[in-house]
Design brief:
The complex is a heterodimer of chains A (135) and B (352). Chain A contains five helices and five strands; from the N terminus they run E-H-E-H-E-H-E-H-E-H. With 135 residues, chain A is an alpha/beta fold. Classes of the chains: A alpha/beta (135), B alpha+beta (352).
Chain lengths: 135, 352
């Protein structure tokens, strides 16, 4: 893998630490941000190859960050994996998997997520985006 | 009071009602309505009087229901209840026939209730539940990840005892996440939080999707899932996510309580004015003494034969909650060691 840089944006420090360990064990380069605003900044300054974005965060939530990045031609190509924390029991709110599917994110997983599943989705997104860039 | 005064008092009362009221004669011409109805249905002043409903009311569902009530003239009391969209608001409408003292049909009366406020409250409650869910599930997500990292040896090797304890921690934590999900389901259903989310549902589609979701777990246990659905089944009126919760709980239960290489069969067919759903398994069955309690919240058989089966004890109470909310019924037949069959009957909404 050629220096694949992942930007991980989540306000839960434990989740960030654990996910960083998992991704680094697979030789990915991981940068972190603890809220939406910082996440947006780092997406622009660090040029990651993939962004993992939690939906519920203070300052700016994952949807907003995702929308802003996808609207910008400079960052549109970066695959975004949205993490949604709320189950489908409450379909009327903005934080459900259903809502996630209406955004432009490239993939979405509900928490809690198994490490293997997370790694698989990340690898999948890299494969797809790699194929797209070659076109 | 002289009749003129009574009439005026009645007029004032009707105009002061918080709900809209609309009365037609037996030909479907509007003969009375109040200010609230005029506002909710955007009726133009006095000009709506003596006009047929289809000329004045934009909402087709309402017009159809009024015509239905007027033409069917059924010997027993009927009423049509429905949710409609009118402009920006969502309205709950209640259409009834009006009969004179000789029981002759002389018109229809419609009550219009604005549920916009209810859906605003629903949204607040739902957002609150979403917040609670997030606050409870997020820390558990991290804990699960941390235990997985330890178990995978990513931060050092473990001895058998350490592995064993960690696996137990992981299982308990996963159990808590399931519990939170189930409690949220229960809250959602019991609070009637879905009252503004009713639509026509294709139950066979919902079942097929549910089966896709549980297929891997059934496969892991070598359990065959057999589904038989009648063609061209009518739609039912209800709440989608509640129905999904009901199906998944019934089928997951069947899978959980059936030992390896068993069979779970799901049948959906029309039975008179009802849709009948049968979920049968070749599982361990339910003892007679437990049957009266199985729909109780948190009730679980705690014995040798169920000690390895995980669950929150809320599944069947969720199922019962959904069945009751949709004015259906549920029954169970079971033989210990042979299997169990749950039968759910849901009334079919007449196409209006």
């Amino acid at each position: 893998m050629r220096g694949k840089k992942i930007l991980l944006v989540d306000d839960d420090a434990d989740f960030v630490e654990a996910t960083k360990i998992i991704l680094e064990s697979r030789s990915y380069d991981v940068t972190v941000a603890h809220d939406g605003k910082e996440g947006l900044q780092k997406a622009q300054t660090e040029q990651p190859n993939l962004i993992i974005l939690d939906v519920m965060m203070p300052e700016m939530d994952g949807y907003e960050v995702c929308a802003k990045l996808k609207a910008d031609p400079k960052y549109r190509h970066i695959p975004i994996l949205l993490l949604t924390a709320v189950g489908e029991a409450i379909p009327t709110t903005k934080y459900t998997l259903e809502m996630g599917m209406k955004t432009e994110a490239d993939d979405y997983i509900p928490k809690p997520v198994e490490p293997m599943e997370l790694v698989e989705r990340v690898e999948n997104l890299f494969k797809i985006s790699g194929a797209n860039l070659r076109k | 009071m002289p009749r003129r005064v009574i009439k005026e008092v009645l007029r004032s009362v009707i105009d002061s009602l918080a709900d809209g009221i609309l009365v037609t004669n037996e030909q479907g011409k509007i003969i009375l309505y109040n200010q609230k109805a005029a506002a909710l249905l955007d009726l133009k002043g006095k000009t709506a009087l003596d006009e047929p409903v289809r000329e004045c009311i934009r909402n087709e569902v309402l017009v159809r229901l009024i015509n239905k009530i007027l033409t069917l003239d059924l010997p027993f009391h009927t009423e049509e209840i429905c949710l409609i969209d009118s402009g920006d608001s969502k309205l709950k409408i209640h259409v009834c026939p009006v009969r004179d003292e000789n029981a002759l049909l002389i018109g229809s009366v419609t009550m219009l209730h604005d549920v916009a406020q209810l859906s605003a409250i629903d949204k607040i409650k739902s957002n609150f539940l979403a917040m609670v869910s997030h606050q409870l599930k997020s820390p558990l997500s991290s804990t699960l990840l941390q235990t997985s990292i330890l178990l995978d040896g990513m931060v050092g090797g473990l001895n058998e005892k350490q592995k064993d304890l960690l696996q137990k921690i992981k299982a308990k934590t996963k159990g808590m996440t399931d519990l939170i999900n189930d409690i949220l389901d229960v809250c959602y259903i019991e609070e009637g939080g879905y009252v503004t989310q009713i639509e026509f549902l294709n139950l066979s589609e919902i079942l097929k999707r549910t089966i896709e979701v549980v297929q891997p777990q059934a496969q892991d246990k070598g359990i065959t899932l057999q589904i038989t659905v009648e063609d061209h089944l009518p739609f039912i009126h209800g709440n989608k996510s509640s129905m999904e919760a009901m199906c998944i709980n019934l089928i997951m239960n069947a899978i959980k309580y059936t030992p390896s290489e068993g069979e779970v069969s799901i049948e959906l067919e029309k039975n008179g004015q009802y849709l009948q759903l049968k979920v049968s398994d070749t599982g361990i069955g339910i003892e007679d003494k437990d049957i009266p309690h199985i729909f109780d919240k948190f009730y679980r058989e705690r014995s040798e034969r169920t000690k390895n089966i995980s669950g929150t004890g809320l599944g069947l109470s969720i199922v019962k909650g959904v069945v009751d909310a949709h004015r259906g019924s549920i029954s169970v037949e079971s033989k210990v060691g042979k299997g169990t069959t749950f039968t759910v009957s849901l009334p079919i909404k007449q196409e209006s």
